[in-house]
Automatic annotation (TrEMBL):
<feature type="domain" description="Csd3-like second N-terminal">
    <location>
        <begin position="221"/>
        <end position="335"/>
    </location>
</feature>
<dbReference type="InterPro" id="IPR050570">
    <property type="entry name" value="Cell_wall_metabolism_enzyme"/>
</dbReference>
<dbReference type="GO" id="GO:0030313">
    <property type="term" value="C:cell envelope"/>
</dbReference>
<keyword id="KW-0862">Zinc</keyword>
<keyword id="KW-1133">Transmembrane helix</keyword>
<dbReference type="Pfam" id="PF19425">
    <property type="entry name" value="Csd3_N2"/>
</dbReference>
<keyword id="KW-0812">Transmembrane</keyword>
<keyword id="KW-0482">Metalloprotease</keyword>
<feature type="region of interest" description="Disordered">
    <location>
        <begin position="478"/>
        <end position="502"/>
    </location>
</feature>
<feature type="compositionally biased region" description="Pro residues">
    <location>
        <begin position="74"/>
        <end position="88"/>
    </location>
</feature>
<feature type="compositionally biased region" description="Basic and acidic residues">
    <location>
        <begin position="102"/>
        <end position="113"/>
    </location>
</feature>
<keyword id="KW-0479">Metal-binding</keyword>
<keyword id="KW-0645">Protease</keyword>
<dbReference type="Pfam" id="PF01551">
    <property type="entry name" value="Peptidase_M23"/>
</dbReference>
<feature type="domain" description="M23ase beta-sheet core">
    <location>
        <begin position="348"/>
        <end position="444"/>
    </location>
</feature>
<dbReference type="GO" id="GO:0004222">
    <property type="term" value="F:metalloendopeptidase activity"/>
</dbReference>
<feature type="region of interest" description="Disordered">
    <location>
        <begin position="48"/>
        <end position="113"/>
    </location>
</feature>
Length: 502
């Protein structure tokens, strides 16, 4: 049992949250305080000087001097304070600011402050015209906008929840606002825009954004599961699952994974020219730093094969046989000569023993055919699988067989073929695992490296170059958080690649 960290953490977290909330307020107070302070100091300083002493001071400050208020002619010029520091703009502030330089109205009579942005969402039963009517846009304008939009969308229907970005202008002689522009972007790479022209008519335009790949890095520290930590760091689920699967042949998750271990994913995202992500990223490579070793996996497609993951040596991570045919197991007896625990004399131990509780499922180490299934002398309930003409595996001391396991049945890699027990000559629940080459038992743990498929020839040369690049990018590619700007609308960059009138 571990002590829950919450009781001590919660007040701290609350305090931090409170501080965060108060921080802008504190900042504002500090700015006001500093400004007042500066004003007082600057107003007092000249007064504290003897009147005849201002020659040097007055010279330098002559340009900034302001007319003195009431103190009389001999007073030295008053220096205006520098403007107080302005707090940094938030993205919310910035959005509105970007629109102002655009003068689409063209009549020049409306000050920029009359313009504002509004985002509305289509609800069930809504049409764009209805949404515009709701905010009191003139009917003549609504009809024009609707016609321009219909011509653009053709028969395409807008989804419920679709957002409509409006740039509006308030007019002194009119209740409702005037629509300067309306934009709908049903897909990141496609935007439909209706703009008001100088003559008061509306014109539709479809913008097509170029989509191109972008390589980013996700760095994470394991807190909770690998999957949770990767998601929190911004990695998409399919990429995380690819990473976990690629690791699963090499890493014993139960024993080797620890909290605080660092890992990095290299992703290829698809991004529009104005920075919208259309594909959150597929895994190109990943690195996991374990206590005593670092595992790196690299995606590669051999010339006549499918995409797969390889270690930096060019060996496929996929093995024909599982690392161990059981989850959460530990080795209790190795292959080789030993004193037999029951028989009491030295004998060859023809397999590896994995200690595990009774009932722990046992997996087929590889795909194959069941050749033996049932009680088998000292082996107790025993299963033997034939994988190739040369290679077989055996599983002893089971408490019972897996569902449907009997001689002649074909099994998949990882299929449950039985459950841990202590049948036969056994001192306690464990799996006795054997590995046969040409019918003779060999050390299963010494076999695993021979089972990998390796790249060769041109594939190997291509792989070497690619993996060098990925290994470099695992360290140097832009971080996902830096690469992706906040999802603020970036209208100013919407001078799109494929703009065409509609
Ligand atoms: Zn054994």
């Amino acid at each position: 049992m571990t002590e829950s960290p919450f009781p001590s953490d919660r007040p701290k977290a609350a305090k931090t949250a409170a501080f965060r909330l108060l921080r802008p307020l504190l900042f504002a107070v500090a700015v006001i305080g500093l400004t007042l302070g500066a004003l007082i100091v600057l107003h007092e300083r000249p007064a504290s000087h003897p009147t005849g002493n201002d020659a040097s001071l007055g010279q330098a400050d002559a340009g900034k001097a302001s007319p003195d208020k009431a103190a009389g002619a001999p007073m030295p010029p008053i220096v205006l304070p520098e403007p107080p520091p302005v707090p940094p703009l938030t993205s919310a502030d910035f959005k509105g600011f970007q629109f102002k330089p655009q003068d689409q109205h063209g009549e020049g009579e409306a000050p920029a402050s009359d313009r504002y942005d509004l985002t509305l969402r289509l609800e069930r039963g809504d049409t764009v015209e209805k949404v515009l009517a709701d905010i009191d846009v003139l009917e003549a304008d609504r009809k024009q906008i609707d016609a321009a939009l219909k011509a653009l969308l053709k028969k395409r229907r807008l989804a419920i929840g679709e957002s409509i970005d409006l740039q509006l202008q308030t007019l002194p002689d009119q209740d409702g606002p005037r629509v300067l522009s309306l934009s709908i972007r049903p897909q990141p790479e496609r935007e439909f825009i209706v703009t008001r022209k100088d003559d008061g008519s509306y014109e539709g335009q479809e913008k097509v954004y170029k989509v191109s790949p972008r390589i980013v890095r996700v760095e994470a520290v394991r807190q909770g599961s690998l999957q949770q930590s990767a998601m929190q760091a911004g990695a998409p689920t399919p990429a995380i699952l690819d990473f976990i699967r690629a690791l699963s042949y090499d890493v014993d998750f139960q024993r080797e994974l620890k909290q605080g271990q660092r890992f990095t994913l290299l992703l290829e995202q698809q991004v529009t020219s104005d920075g919208r992500v259309t594909d959150p990223g597929r895994l190109l490579a990943g690195e996991l730093r374990l206590t005593d070793r670092t595992i790196i996996v690299v995606r590669f497609r051999p010339q006549n094969g499918a995409d797969g993951f390889y270690n930096p040596k060019g060996e496929s991570v996929v093995r024909s046989f599982l690392r161990t045919p059981m989850d959460a197991s530990h080795i209790t007896s190795r292959f080789g000569m030993r004193e037999h625990p029951i028989l009491g004399f030295s004998a060859m131990h023809t397999g590896v023993d994995f200690g595990a509780p009774t009932g722990t499922p046992i997996f087929a180490a590889g795909a194959g055919k069941v050749v033996t299934a049932g009680p088998n002398g000292g082996y107790g309930i025993f299963v033997k699988l034939q994988h190739t003409t040369q290679i077989g595996t055996g599983y002893g001391h089971m408490s019972r067989l897996g569902p449907g396991i009997k001689p002649g049945v074909l099994v998949r890699q990882g299929q449950v073929i039985g459950f841990v027990g202590s049948t036969g000559l056994s001192t306690g629940p464990h799996l006795h695992y054997e590995f046969y080459r040409d019918g003779h038992p060999v050390n299963p743990l010494a076999q695993k490296f021979a089972m990998r498929a390796g790249l060769s020839g041109k594939d190997m040369n291509r792989f070497k170059a690619l993996s060098r690049e990925y290994l470099n990018q695992l360290k140097n590619a832009p971080h996902i958080a830096e690469a992706s700007p906040p999802p603020a609308r970036q209208k100013e960059s919407a001078a799109a690649d494929g703009a065409r009138g509609g």
